[in-house]
Amino acid sequence: MRDINAKRRLLIQATSAAGLLGPLAPLGLNTALAQQQPAPRRGGTLRIAVDQAPSVIHPLLLRVNPEYLVAELLYSALTRLGPHMEVQPDLATAWSASDDLKTWTFTLRPGVKFHDGTPMDSADVVATFNKILDPATASPARNNVGPIDSVQADGPGKVVFHLKQAYADLPVTLAYTNAKIIPKAIATGDFARLSREAVGTGPFKLVNYEPARQVVVERNPDYYDPARPYLDRVVVVINPDETSRISSLLAGDNDVVLNISGSNVARVANAPGVVSLRTPSGQFLNVIMRCDQPPFNDPRVRKALSLAVDRKALVDYVADGFGTVGTDTPINSAYHFYRQLPVPANDPQAARKLLAEAGHPNGLKVTLVASSAPSTRETLAVAMREMTRPAGFDIEVQTMPHATYLDQVWLKGSFYVGFYNMQPTADAIFSLLYTSTAAWNETKWNNSQFDSLVSQARSTLDEARRTDLYGQAQALMAQEVPTVIPVFFDLLGGRRDYVQNFALHPRAAVFDLDRAWLANSAPKR
Predict the structure, then answer these.
(1) What number of other Cβ atoms are within 10 A of residue 359's Cβ?
(2) Model confidence at 37, in pLDDT bands (50, 70, 90)?
C-alpha cells in the first residue's frame, strides 16, 4: 500500500487551485479575514440567508446550493474539502491505495453516532455507496464519486473500494456533495424517509424544515469532534429577493448573506458593522445546446453562437466585473490542469456565414429558457438576445421560476441557461456534465474522443501526461462548442463583523459552518 502522507500530498497537488493562483484565500473588500482571531467562542444562533428554497433534503438527491448547505449541516461524508480545495478527513481518518490505484482502503473514525443514537460503521458506508451506485436511485453522486466497481467492509472500521480503473482522485471525489453517509437500515429500507427527516452524523441536528421559509438546526451534542460546532443553532432563511436579503443583513436581522451580485458589493462594503466577502472561483454560467437535436446538432450553429457574443462585455454586464471570461470549457485558471486557450473573437460576420453554411441564410429563430435563480441567468439570456442579433440569431427569452425550470427544462430542454459551481477537480466537472456517461449530460454531445481523453487522464499519476490529456480535452470542447461558457464568477457575499471564521469557499457548495463562531458583540437570540 502507498504511504498515506505521500498520497495526500499527491492529491493536494493534483487538485488544488493554489498551484496556479497562489493560495485561494478568500478576498475581503473590507478585510474579510481577520489577521489574528481569538479563540473560538461557543454559543449563539447564526442566521444565514439564501436565495433558493432547499426543496430537497435527501442527502443523496441534492441539486442546488441551499440544499448542499442544509445537508452539510446534518450529514458527514468520508472526506471534506479544505479552503484550498485540498482533501481533509471527515468520517474517514486515513486512506491508502494499491500500487495500481484500483483498490483504496479507508479507515473510519471510531465512536461516531447517527442522530438517532445508532452507531456508524463500515456497514453503513457500504450500504450508502451501494445505494448511490444503484441507477434506480438516480443520485447525482453515481457518476461523480469515481469509477467505483464495488465497496466492501473490512471489519467494522475499514472500507475497501474496488475501482473499474486506476483513479488518482478518489479521496477528493468522496467529498462530493451527494455522497453523505446514511444508516444502512434506511439505505436498505425506507429510503424515502430522508426526504422528510434527517438521520445523519453531521455537526447539527434538524429541528424544523419549512423549505419555502426557513430550516432550523441545533448543535449535535454527539458530534465526533466534541469541540465543534461552536454555534448552538443555525437558521437558514429563504429569501429570493436580493435587495431584501441585503437589507436584512445591514439591519442585523441576518448574519450572513450568500450569493450577492456585483452591483450590490459597494452597498455591503460601505455599511457599518458589515464585511463584504469575495473569493475567486470556477463557478460559471453556460448556454446548453442539445447536440443531438436540430439546429444544434450542427457544430457550425454552435460555433456561430460562440462567435456572436462579446465575452468581456458579458463579464462587465452579467458579473459586474467580478469575474473572468470563459472559452467554452468549464475549466478556468482556478483549476489545476487548466490550459489557456484563445478567447473566441466577437465576430458577427463570421457567425452569420456559419449559419448560412448550416442552412440558415436568413438567420435562426430559437427560444432560450432562463430560470429566475440566480438572477444572472436571466441577465445573460437577455444579453445574449441583444448581442447575437447582428450574427443572425433571433432569440426569444423565456423566463420561469426555478422550481418550474428544474421540473420542466433542466436535463430536458434543448436551449437553456445553466449555472454550475466549481468542482474539486477537472475530472469531476467533466464527468458531471460533459462525458457521455455524465450524471447531468445535458448537451448529449457524446464525443468518444473526449471521453477517451478524460478516461486516460484520470488513470495516470504522470503529471505531464495528465496535463496534456486534460489540455487536449479542453481544446476539443473549444473546437466543438457543445456549450457556450462565456463568463466565470467570483463568489460574493457578506457577513456581520461579529461572525468569525467564515469565508466563501471556492467550491461554492462547501460552507464549513461547524467551524464558524460568534464574537461577544453578536446579538443574543
Answers:
(1) 12
(2) low
Mean pLDDT score of the chain? 92
Between the CA of residue 377 and those of 261, 372, 389, 400, what are the distances in Å? Answer: 12, 7, 19, 11
How far is CA 507 from its chain centroid? Answer: 5
Long-range contacts formed by 127-136: CB under 8 A, 24+ apart: 127/182, 127/183, 127/184, 127/187, 127/188, 128/60, 128/179, 128/180, 128/181, 128/182, 128/184, 128/187, 129/161, 129/179, 130/187, 131/60, 131/182, 131/187, 131/188, 131/191, 132/60, 132/178, 132/179
Phi-psi region of 508 (alpha: psi -120 to 50; beta: other; left: phi over 0): left
Q: What is the pTM of this model?
A: 0.78
HSE (side-chain half, CA atoms, 13 Å) at 169? 32
pLDDT higher than threshold 50 for residue 25: no
Closest CA to 220 of 237, 211, 235, 207: 207
User: For 33-62, what is the HEC assignment?
Assistant: CCCCCCCCCCCCEEEEEECCCCCCCCCCCC
Query: How far is residue 484's CA from residue 461's CA, in Å, rounded to a whole number?
Result: 31
> How far is Cα 50 from Cα 234, in angstroms, rounded to an integer?
13
Domains of the chain plus CATH, in order, are: 4-240+498-518 (3.40.190.10), 280-489 (3.10.105.10)
- Which residue is associated with the grid cell 447575437? 388
Cell numbers standing for residue 420 = 454550475
Indicate the DSSP class of residue 119. Answer: B
Dump pLDDT digits (tens) for 448-503.
999 999 999 988 888 899 999 999 999 999 999 999 999 999 999 999 999 999 99
Cis, peptide link before residue 229, omega less than 30° from 0: yes
Helix axes 463-480, 448-458, angle to 10 degrees: 160
- 315 CB burial (10 A radius; 0-12, 13-18, 19+): buried
Q: Which helix (H) or strand (E) holds 145?
A: none
Alpha-carbon distances, residue 390 vs 180, 287, 313, 369 (angstroms): 48, 19, 16, 21
In three-state secondary structure terms, 328 is coil
- Taking a C-beta distance cutoff of 8 angstroms, is the pair 216, 223 a contact? no
Pair type for strands 364-371 and 92-97: unpaired
Q: What digits encode the pLDDT tens for the residues 349-397? A: 999 999 999 999 999 999 999 999 888 999 999 999 999 999 999 999 9
Q: Residue 94 pairs with which residues in a beta bridge?
A: 107
